[in-house]
Structures are given as C-alpha cells and as structure tokens.
Write a structure and sequence with these properties.
Helices cover 33% and strands 24% of the residues. The strands form two sheets. The protein has an eight-stranded mixed sheet, sandwiched between helices. A two-stranded antiparallel ribbon has the order 7-8. Helix 2 crosses helix 3. The longest helix has 14 residues. It comes from Tenacibaculum caenipelagi. This is Pimeloyl-ACP methyl ester carboxylesterase.
C-alpha cells in the first residue's frame, strides 16, 4: 500500500451533507479511481504511477470511507454516486473516465446512468449493478465488526478509528443496487467489464447479461481468479488492458 508519488492536490470538500476527501496526481484527461466497500482510496495508490503519465488521476474516498466523513446516514449506492457527481461539478469536470472495483464499479454504473454525458469510458471490476447483501446471509454473519480481528486489513484503509470501521461494517447490511435494463440503456460510456471466474458473490451470468445489455461494452473473464481480478498475478495484464482501453488503443 506504500505510495511512491506525492499528490499535487488533496482536500476534503463539503458535498451533500458529508465531507468527501480526494487526491489528484498526474496530468491529462481526468480519471477517477473508485475503491471497494470497506476499502479506501489507499487501495489504488500502487496503481497511480501507471496512470499518471496519461491521465490526471483522482483518488476519491467514497462516503463513510477513508478520510471522508464517517457514516451518519443510511448507506446507499445512489447517495455515494451523487457525491461523485457533485464532486465533479465542484471541480468543473464535465467529462471523465473511471475505474471502479466492486462498490466503486457499482458507483460508476449508477453515475453513468444518472448522467450519461459525464462518463466517457469506464472499467468495472467485480460489479454488476444488481446486488443485494441480504442475498448473502453467511457473508453478513461473518463479515461484521464482531469478527474485526479476522479483518485487520480494514484498519489499514481508515483514519477514523474503530467507530468508523464499525459503521462501515454495520452499513453493509444496507448495500443494495438494482439498475433496471432501462437505466442501464441510458449508459453511453464505453465499458470494459472484468470479473474473476471464481468471484463467489458475483455470478458470471449476471456480468454476461450486463455486457449484453450495455450498448458498448467488452468483457474479460479472468481465469482462476477471485474478486480482485485486477491484482496479484493479473496486475500487469490489467494495467496494460485498462490503459489501452481508456486511451482507445486496445486492439
């Protein structure tokens, strides 16, 4: 998680009754990197250098996470998406590219449906725009604050202490997104969908359906890989493909 470059800008801004933290690196077209649920923008730090020669990279702590405000309201993907939309307006950014992991991928899908003109192209990892944590009771019974000692890595991502971490884990029970085909059809962004074939909570057929529904999408099913299909042994190929896709040079 160690960062090798320094942001040229970082701040917390008041947006939609919460404070949202972001950092900016590099130069070029705006590119937002959105983390997964229980993570923070720290999860993308080791990727920033690879993108910053071609893009002005924005790392964003989604509401409740990282250095953004702790949860005070019931969680919704829609609200997190509205935060990103408002932040883009605050920064006078009217066209953006994006990469989103899991929760971050759902936010990108929701955002590009809400405002089709904003998102030009995006890479979605381990998300399908149709997911409800209540469908996974065994996950909820395990992945909670009572078992925090099993998930020490969560503490690496957050600065708000145990209250913040407990709030994030408690709010997981409220995670729900269900974009209709009509809402998905509004999306104009060119989209690269990525899923590990062993990702336990995102069925492959749901991402295939999303691929078929979106007007302009490509699909990469990564073999012998779980939820973090962009990491580990796949990181080099992910960086190559994602950069080529976002730069419109993918063959």
């Amino acid at each position: 998680m160690k960062n090798t470059i320094t942001p040229k800008k970082h701040e917390r801004v008041n947006i939609n009754r919460v404070e949202i933290y972001y950092e900016v690196y590099g130069k070029g077209e705006p590119l937002i990197l959105l983390h997964g649920y229980t993570q923070s923008s720290i999860a993308w730090l080791e990727y920033v250098k690879e993108y910053s020669d071609n893009f002005e990279v924005y790392l964003i702590d989604l509401r409740g996470h990282g250095k953004s405000s702790k949860f005070e309201y019931q969680f919704s993907v829609r609200a997190a998406s509205e935060d990103v939309l408002t932040l883009m307006k605050h920064l006078n950014i009217d066209k953006v590219k994006g990469i989103g992991l899991s929760f971050g991928g759902d936010v990108l899908l929701e955002l590009s449906s809400m405002n089709p003109e904003l998102v030009e192209s995006m890479v979605i990892i381990g998300a399908n725009g149709n997911w409800d944590s209540q469908d996974f009771p065994s996950m909820l019974s395990t992945f909670n604050y009572d078992n925090i000692e099993k998930f020490q890595w969560i503490r690496d991502y957050h600065t708000g202490g145990e209250e913040q971490i407990k709030g994030i884990l408690d709010q997981l029970a409220n995670y729900k997104i269900k974009l209709t085909d009509e809402e998905l059809k509004r999306i104009k962004a060119k989209t690269l969908l990525i899923l590990g074939d062993k990702a336990e909570q995102i069925p492959i057929d749901s991402v295939v359906k999303l691929h078929q529904t979106l007007d302009d999408s490509q699909l990469w099913i990564v073999p012998n890989t779980g939820h973090y299909a962009h990491d580990g042994d796949n990181k080099t190929e992910f960086l190559r493909l994602s950069k080529a896709f976002l730069l419109n040079t993918l063959k």
